[in-house]
Amino acid sequence: MIGAQAVAGNSILPFRLAGLHNTHNWPDHGGFAKLGNHGSLSARRRAHCTRAGNNEEVGSLGRELDMKTEVLRGTDFSDMAEEETSRQELQLPEEGYIGLFVRMLGMDNLVEDREEAVRALWRHSMGGLDCISEIVAYPGVLTLLVSLLPSKRTASSEAAAGLLRNVSSCDVHRPSVAESGAVEELIGILTRRTLAQEVREQAANCLWNLSLEEVVRNRLDISELLPVLWTMLDSEGSDKEAATGILANFALNDCNHELLVEAGIIPKLADLLKSGEGSRVTRQEARKVFLELVQNAQFKQMIIEEGMVPVPLIGASAYKSFKPLLDVAPTLPEGLNVKPPSLPSTFGAGKLLLGLGQKDNLYNLDDATQLAIEGRARQHFLGRVGLLEKEASKQEATTASRKDAVTIMTWWDGIPRLVLILGLEDIKVASLAASTISEIAINEDIRLAIQKAGSIPYLVRLLGSGDEGATEAGAAALEQLAVSFDVRKSIDAHGAVPALAEIVKADDAPGSVKEKVLMALDRLTQTGEEVKAMIKSGAFPALLNMANSSSANTYAKQEAEGILEELSSRKVDSRQKLVDAGGIPALIHTFASGVPSIKQKAARVMENLAARDSHAESIVTAGVELPLKSLLQVIVEERVDPLETPDIVELEETWAAITAACRLLNKLLIHKKVREIIDCRGLALLLAQALKSDLPLHVKDWVSASLLNLDRLIGITTNANVTIESEVIVHDRIPRLVNEIESSIDRDVQEEAAIQLRDLVSQGIESYVAAIANAGGIFPLVELLESGTLKAQEAALSVLYSLGTNEENHPALIRAGVVTPLQRIVRTECSQWKLALYLLRVLPA
C-alpha cells in the first residue's frame, strides 16, 4: 500500500457544501454496503483481471477485497452524526484502502468498479483536509476523476463532481483541480440540460470554488455561462447559491461588469434581496456582486434605482454615541398625519399600537410608508440592543482605514440606518451618511422616504457644526432633496434657509462649501414656482369646485382642502427668509469676489429672488450693477495668448457665469423701478463688445437676448449707423445659421438655415455678407449646393452669388469646389442656371 503524503501548514476553507448536513445530499451508503452484501464485485474484478492475463494480481486483489467485505459487513453507515463523532476514536473502514480505490478508478476497470471506488473516495473526502490530502497525494487521481464527469452513470458523475467539489474547496488543492481539465468538463455538465439535477448541483458548486482563482475566471466564457446561471437563479436550494456565488466571483473582474449589467443582473439580484428569497448564503453572494458593481458611478445609480442603498460601514464602536430615547413614545414618520387614539394612554401604548387600529381604513397606510415604519423600528431596535455591524466588528481596523467600505441594504432598512448614523455625535461619521444621502436621492420616492425617516433636522444640524466637510455634505444632501417640492417644504420648516444664509455671509467659508450652499439655496428659492404654474393653468377653480362638491368622495375633498389650506397659509416663503437673513448683500459680495463657478451660482440665486419687485429693487440698490459690469469688462479686455493652451474647465465656468449674469439682468429688466435705476446704456455697450468676442454661440444667445432687451428700452446704437439688432445678427445669428448648415444632419434644418441666410443677404447689408464668410460659411454652402434639397440649393446659390461679388472670397470659393456644381446647374438649365452662369463668369479662370 502506497503511503499518503502529509500536507501540513494549510487550513481548509469552510466547505461550500450547502445542505450536506441533510442526509439526502450525502452519497448513498448502499454503495459501500454492496461491497459486503454482494460477492459479485470481487468476482467481476477477478474475471476482468484474468482476461487481462494478470493472475497474480487477481489473487492478491481478490484477497484484499474479500477482507474488506468481511470488515464492511459488520459496519453500520446509517447514522452519520455518530460516525463523525467516533471518527477520531475508530478508523473508518475505507481508511487504509485509499490506494486500492484509486487503482480501481483506472479506465481499464469495469464501470461498476469505478463507480464504487469514486463513491467511496467521495465519502472519505468529507473527513476534512487530511482526508482530501490523502486522496490527492496519489498521482493522476484528479485526471481520473475528471474522466468520470461525463459518465452516463448518474451516480459516477455525481460522485466525481462531488469529490472535485470537496478538493476544490481547499486553497492548497484548488489550482491542481483547475489544471486537471475539470473546468471544461464542468461547463459541459452545466450546459447540458438533460443531466440529472444532483449532478448539475455538484458541478455548479465545484465551479463556484474554482472560479475563485483569477486564472480560471479568465478562461471562462461568461457569455456562455450566463443563460445557465440565469436558469439556476430561478431554482431553489444549492443551485441558486452556486449561481450567485459564480456571479460574485465573475464580478471580481472589472472587465465582466458591463456584460453582467447588460444581461440584467442588477434587477435580478435586487428582486432576490428585496423579496428575501433564498438562503443567507445566496443573499450574501448577491451583496458581493453589488459591492463590486457599486464602485462604478453609472452602475451605482442603477443599483439605487432598483431600491438598494449603499450604506457606509463605520464600525460597531461608532454607535456607542447612539442615545436611544427609551422614555419617549414611538413616533410615526415625518409628514404622516393620522387621527390619534380617542382614549389617552398612560404609558404611550396607544401610539405604539396605532397601526393595529385600522378600522374602516381609517389609518390605511400605503406599502412604502409601512415599510418605512418597520425599517425605522427595526434599525432603532438594533441600535438599542447594540447589534449594529456586529459582524463587521472583527474587521473594524480595516473598516476604519477604508473610508469607502459599504454594505448593501434594501431602501426600507438602508435609509433608516443612514438617518441613525446622521444622529450620532461623531460629525465625521455623520457626514459620511449625509454624502450617501446626496448620492441616493435620485428620484421622488427615495427623497420622500429619506424625509419621512427624519433626516432633515440632522442635515440642518450639520450646517452649523463648524466642520467644513460636514457642512458641505449636509448642504449637498439638502440640495438633492430639495428637488422634491414636498421635501422642500420640510427643509424650509426646519430652518435650513437662515442656516445656509449664515454660511454665505461668513468670509472665512471655503469656496467648495459656499458652492454647495449656493446650490442648495438655488433649489430652495425656487419654492412657489409650482404654485404659480397651478394658478396659471387654472387649477385653482378646479380645487375649489372639488372641495365644495357634494358628489366627490371624502378622500378627494380632503386632499383638495389640504392643498388650498397650504397655499393660503404660505405667508413667508424661502425667498423672503433669505432676504430677511441678510442674504442679498452676501450674495452680491460673493458674486463680485468669487471664482467663476461661484459667481454663476450666486447669480442664479439672485435670479430666483428677482422674481418679486421688492427683491429685484433691493438687489439693484445693494449694488449688483458694479460686479455685472466688472464681469463683462473682464471678458471684453481678456485676450488669450495663442501659444498658451487655455484651461477648458475654467473657460466653461467663465461662460456659465456670463450666461447666469445675462439671465439675472433679463430678470431685473422686467421690473419698471429697476429700469429707472440701472445704467442701461453702459451695460449695453459692454454687452455689444462682448458679443464681438470669441464667446461660444450658446453664450452669445443670452448676451443677444440682454442686448435686445436694452435696445428696446433705450434704442442705443454702437455707432452712427449700426444698431444693436444688426450687431446681434452679425455676431450671433449668422454664425449660428452657418453652424446649423455645417453640423446638422437634418436636411430640413439645413434648408431653413440657408433660406434665412438668403433673406439676410437680400437686405443688401455688406456686413452680413462679410459675416457669412468670416464664419466659414463658404464650404458648407458649396456642400449644400451638391447634396441639399432643391430649395436649399436655390438659397445656397443665392448666398454664394452674393459672396462672389467680393474678390476676396474667390480663392475660398474655388478651394471649396464650387465650379463643378455650378457647371452642372448650367448644363441642366434648371431655374437658377443663369445665376450660376453669372457666378462662373466672375470667378477667375
UniProtKB/TrEMBL annotation:
<dbReference type="Pfam" id="PF00514">
    <property type="entry name" value="Arm"/>
</dbReference>
<feature type="repeat" description="ARM">
    <location>
        <begin position="140"/>
        <end position="182"/>
    </location>
</feature>
<feature type="repeat" description="ARM">
    <location>
        <begin position="776"/>
        <end position="818"/>
    </location>
</feature>
<feature type="repeat" description="ARM">
    <location>
        <begin position="582"/>
        <end position="624"/>
    </location>
</feature>
<dbReference type="InterPro" id="IPR011989">
    <property type="entry name" value="ARM-like"/>
</dbReference>
<feature type="repeat" description="ARM">
    <location>
        <begin position="495"/>
        <end position="539"/>
    </location>
</feature>
<feature type="repeat" description="ARM">
    <location>
        <begin position="181"/>
        <end position="211"/>
    </location>
</feature>
<dbReference type="InterPro" id="IPR016024">
    <property type="entry name" value="ARM-type_fold"/>
</dbReference>
<protein>
    <submittedName>
        <fullName>Uncharacterized protein</fullName>
    </submittedName>
</protein>
<dbReference type="InterPro" id="IPR000225">
    <property type="entry name" value="Armadillo"/>
</dbReference>
